[in-house]
Every structure is written in C-alpha cells, then in structure tokens.
Amino acid sequence: MRSLTLPAPAKLNLMLHILGRRADGYHELQTLFQFLDHGDELTFTPRSDGQIRLHTELPGVDHDSNLIVRAARQLQAASGTALGADIQLLKRLPMGGGIGGGSSDAATTLVGLNHLWQTRLGEDRLAQIGLSLGADVPVFVHGHAAFAEGVGERLQRVQLSEPWFLVIAPQVSVSTAEIFSDPELTRNTPAITVRSLLAGGGRNDCQPVVEKRYPEVRNALSLLNKFVPARMTGTGACVFGSFPNKGEADKVCRQLPDHMPGFVAQGRNVSMLHRKLAKMAQEVNA
Ligand SMILES: C[C@](O)(CO)[C@H](O)COP(=O)(O)OP(=O)(O)OC[C@H]1O[C@@H](n2ccc(N)nc2=O)[C@H](O)[C@@H]1O
Ligand SMILES: Nc1ncnc2c1ncn2[C@@H]1O[C@H](COP(=O)(O)OP(=O)(O)OP(=O)(O)O)[C@@H](O)[C@H]1O
After folding, report:
1. Segments making up each domain of the chain, as ranges
2. Atom of ligand 1 nearest to the CA of 27
3. 68 Cα: distance to centroid of ligand 2 (angstroms)
4. Is 282 left (phi over 0), alpha (psi -120 to 50) or beta?
5. What average pLDDT does the segment 227-255 reach?
C-alpha cells in the first residue's frame, strides 16, 4: 500500500511566562511558539488488519507508551477506522530538549494518518485529541506560529520575523513535570497582551529553576551569551539565540565544544508539516 513520509518539526518557546496554577495542577501559561525547519521524519504505511506498529525504538520509551503509537490509537478510536499502520521514525530531535519532539511526532501522526486513512476529522478535532496527549500537541497540529494561553491550547496566530537560530542541546534530558513541580518556580507573572509582547520583551520563567538544577544548561547559556542574547526553550534543556543570517550562526556552531552539540535552523511561521501538506494538495490539483 502507498506510504506517506512527513516532517515533525521542532518548536521554540520564544518566551514562556507562568501566570498561575490550576486546580488540576497544570500551569496557566503565556508563550510564543515558532517552528524550526529542523525535525524528525515519520513514514506511515497503512495496514488492513488494524494493528499499529512502530518499527523504531526510542531509549527508555516502550512501544505502547510512545506518543506516536498513542496518537495513532486515539485517532482509530475517535474515527472508528478499521485500518492500522506501520510507522518508521527518523529521530533527529533530542528528547527532553524543550523543542517538542514527542509532541510534534504525535501531531504529525494525527495529521498524517487522518490523511492516509481518509478519516476526515477536522483540524480542531485533531488538536483536541492532541491536547489529551500533551499540552504542546495542538500548536503542531495547526502548524502556525502562535501566542498561546491556557495550558497552551488557546492559540492566536502571529506573524513573526524568521531569523536564523543556533540551538544548543546540552547532553541532559529535563523532565517537564519535575520543573513544574519545583517550589521555587515563579508562578505569578502578570498577564501581558500579545501586542505588548510583540513590541519586545518576555522571558522564560522556567529558566532560573533549570539553570540551578542543571549546570550543563547554565554553561550552554553563558557560552551562547558571549555571542548573542541566549534563552532557554520550554522547560529546557535546549537553549537558543538568533542571528541575522545563516553564516554567522554556522560560524558560532562550528566553535561549540563536543559536549554541547548544536544545530542551525531557520524560524518558521508555517511549519514544515503544513508546507509539505500544502505542496501535496497543489500536486493533486495540478
Ligand atoms: C513547557 C511547554 O513545553 C511549553 O510549550 C509545555 O507547556 C509542556 O508541554 P508537554 O511537554 O506537552 O507537557 P505535558 O506532557 O502536557 O505535561 C508534562 C507535565 O508537566 C506539567 N505541566 C505541563 C504543562 C503545563 N501547562 N503545566 C504543567 O504543570 C504537568 O505536571 C504535566 O504532568
Ligand atoms: N515519539 C517520542 N519522541 C520523544 N519522546 C517521546 C516520544 N514518545 C514518548 N516520549 C517521552 O516523552 C518525553 C518528552 O519528550 P520530548 O522530546 O517531547 O520532550 P521535550 O522536547 O522536552 O517536550 P516539550 O517541549 O513538549 O516539553 C521523553 O523523555 C519520552 O519519555
């Protein structure tokens, strides 16, 4: 049967404010998401026997807990399809990096299988299913840079400049749950409007807690700060800085020590997943 290969791009939280804690323990946030033109890649092949089989193993994640498998099963349940899928994953994004690898894999699975299985669920319904898998999944389903509120599910599209970023991935995996449960986390940042945010400013409220717990993250920030203002994304561990062009970002990337691998990627307002879907639609209509 026909296979479909789709990208699962990374995201950056250009800022992340924590406004408070809800009764269910989750935190109210304000964050600005932009995608990177760098990410994982998934290949889906439909099966007629209804089984979901992911053929790529990830260290520390068993088959049935992988967000890809969970997303596929949720879509089966929501749509009632009798089809299954063989899935291959090309993993490029560091896990526990704050660049949304697992969430993006889940979103690409929802969008990709909805297309391949012709289950025809709308984007809002896919985002709703995605939210039950992780707070970051909806923005990847919609695929547009956004100002997010709530736990990340109330999205407002934004048009941002698309600079080149150098992202450093310190060799540690930071647990999101661990950072959100730290008593020292700032949880009372006043709400700001998207307009005042886009005029400049913002910070990452998780950064001081992560810097304190993870010297690797602290060191990556101070190294990058020598060249451009550096900030952490999500709950870490990755840190990023923006450059006016690719050449300057590449130059700093080449100077990184072995224990601090990095990559250069462009910020994108429309995700690679949605660019690819638009291209496929054009080819069909041509
Ligand atoms: C920090 C961000 O990456 C910003 O984009 C996200 O809000 C985190 O999204 P995620 O990795 O998809 O996180 P989830 O898998 O939904 O949550 C992991 C854990 O982090 C805590 N958590 C997460 C999101 C949130 N708004 N408040 C929380 O308190 C909860 O303890 C939760 O059990
Ligand atoms: N397909 C997947 N890819 C990566 N991690 C997965 C996947 N499925 C399940 N996981 C689990 O989810 C955890 C978080 O993974 P992820 O790479 O999304 O972290 P993250 O980049 O910090 O996410 P976020 O930015 O959303 O906080 C991993 O440590 C792993 O245990």
Report:
1. 4-158, 164-268
2. 27
3. 11
4. alpha
5. 97
Cα angle, residue 143 at apex, residues 139 and 145 outer, rounded to 5°: 75
CATH class of 164-268: alpha beta
Query: What's the confidence (pLDDT) of residue 276?
Result: 97
58 CA distance to ligand 1 centroid (A)?
20
Ligand 2 atom closest to Cα of residue 65: 9
Tell me: the pLDDT tens digits for 58-102?
999 999 999 999 999 999 999 999 999 999 999 999 998 999 999
Ligand 2 binding site (Cβ under 6 Å of any ligand atom)? 58, 60-61, 66-68, 95-103, 105, 136, 173, 176, 234-235
CATH class of 4-158: alpha beta
Candidate list 40, 105, 136, 205, residue with the active-site label: 136
Please give the distance, rounded to the nearest whole angstrom, from the Cα atom of residue 24 to the centre of ligand 1. Answer: 12
* 67, containing H or E segment: helix 67-79
Instruction: Give the pLDDT band (50/70/90) at residue 262.
Output: very high
Asked about 11 being catalytic, the answer comes back as: yes
Judge contact between 268 and 162, C-beta under 8 A: yes
Q: Measured from the CB, is residue 134 less than 6 Å from ligand 1?
A: yes
pLDDT tops 70 at residue 1 = no
Tell me how far CA of residue 199 lies from CA of 26, 158, 179, 192, in angstroms: 28, 12, 28, 11
Q: Which residue has the higher pLDDT, 1 or 110?
A: 110
* 151-209 pLDDT, tens digit each: 888 999 999 999 999 999 999 989 999 999 999 999 999 999 988 888 777 899 999 99
Known catalytic membership, residue 212: no
Burial code (b: 16+ CB inside 10 Å, e: under 16) for 17-26 equals bbbeeeeeee
The pair of structure tokens assigned to 117 is 């299985």
What whole-number percentage of the chain has pLDDT above 70?
100
- Is 152 annotated as contributing to ligand binding? no
